[in-house]
């Protein structure tokens, strides 16, 4: 199954399919789940991981909201979508920075996903007009 295909099938898309935005939405969905999983793993660590948990959960919420806005094609709210993409990229970078402070493999993986999501959100920004 592919979110790209689902978006392309929307009656309002037609020839106006935005590949970059669909990719950003897909990675934001994945990033939300990776951040939630990392927060859960951090909660099980024997050290104080409160800040990492907070960063991951905040990032997960922003990514999930960004993905939901990015997949909608009925009507337009370009300004809101652009703000969400910008915010998602910034929050992902903050989360990646926090996760990078820890040697846990789940944090390293989360940081990598956050960086990829931030890059995709930034790449999609010029295509949203």
Automatic annotation (TrEMBL):
InterPro entries per the UniProt record, alphabetical: Csp_YhjQ (IPR005560), YHJQ-like (IPR044543)
Name this protein carries in UniProt: Ferredoxin
Native source organism of the sequence: Sphingobium indicum BiD32
């Amino acid at each position: 199954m592919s979110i790209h295909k689902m978006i392309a099938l929307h009656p309002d898309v037609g020839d106006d399919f935005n590949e970059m935005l669909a990719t950003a939405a897909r990675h934001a969905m994945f990033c939300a789940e990776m951040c939630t999983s990392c927060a859960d793993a951090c909660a099980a660590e024997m050290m104080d991981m409160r800040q990492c948990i907070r960063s991951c959960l905040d990032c997960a919420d922003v990514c999930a909201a960004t993905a939901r806005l990015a997949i909608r094609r009925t009507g337009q709210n370009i300004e809101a979508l652009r703000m969400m993409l910008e915010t998602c990229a910034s929050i992902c970078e903050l989360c990646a920075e926090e996760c990078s402070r820890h040697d846990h493999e789940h944090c390293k993986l989360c940081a990598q996903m956050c960086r990829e999501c931030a890059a995709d959100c930034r790449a999609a920004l010029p295509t949203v007009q």
